[in-house]
Prior knowledge:
By secondary structure, the chain is of the alpha+beta class. 42% of the residues lie in helices and 9% in strands. It is built from 5 helices and 4 strands. It has a 4-stranded antiparallel β-sheet with strand order 1-2-3-4, covered by helices on one side. The radius of gyration is 19 Å and the shape is globular.
Amino acid sequence: MKTVRAFIIVLTSVALVSCDQGAKLDREAGVPAEVLEKRACQQNLEKIYAAIKAYQEAHKQLPNWLSDLVPGALSNTNVLICPVAGREGVKTYPGLEDPRIATSYTYDFCNREVPGTVWGGSATTMRDWKNRQRAIYGDDVPMVRCTHHERVLNVSYGGKIFESSVTWEDDPQFQRAAAGRNVGPDQ
């Protein structure tokens, strides 16, 4: 048993040193802070996506808010704050704030009516609208978004991380997929 514990301690020490050396190499290589923050944000999006999928598996439905993930599917609430937002101040897209927890990420499948800050607003819920968009775009519809970077970071319903403009529906690849159809909340 002592041998196993010693082995685990050695492995843990090696892992910690490797992480420290990796961060040091990034700094020494002159990797700009915005690149490192973007990578960390992408990792946060991956963790949030995994937590949403775990919640969906356990409850047979999507969460209404990102705060529904805490503490069951997501124990570390720091994941809900983009490093840029942590530095500049926590905020999410106006009108889509989580009612129970501070988060810098926008959850587009929330169960709130489309606010006036998004496509002029609608009595349709964000979730209903995004599910209708899935009929057009498939699982490429953004599920969670971070507007704290030059281009918005998204994780799609299908788990793909990609960049877009704030109004992702206007990006060329999505315009082609929509082929002139109305993709707004009141389709």
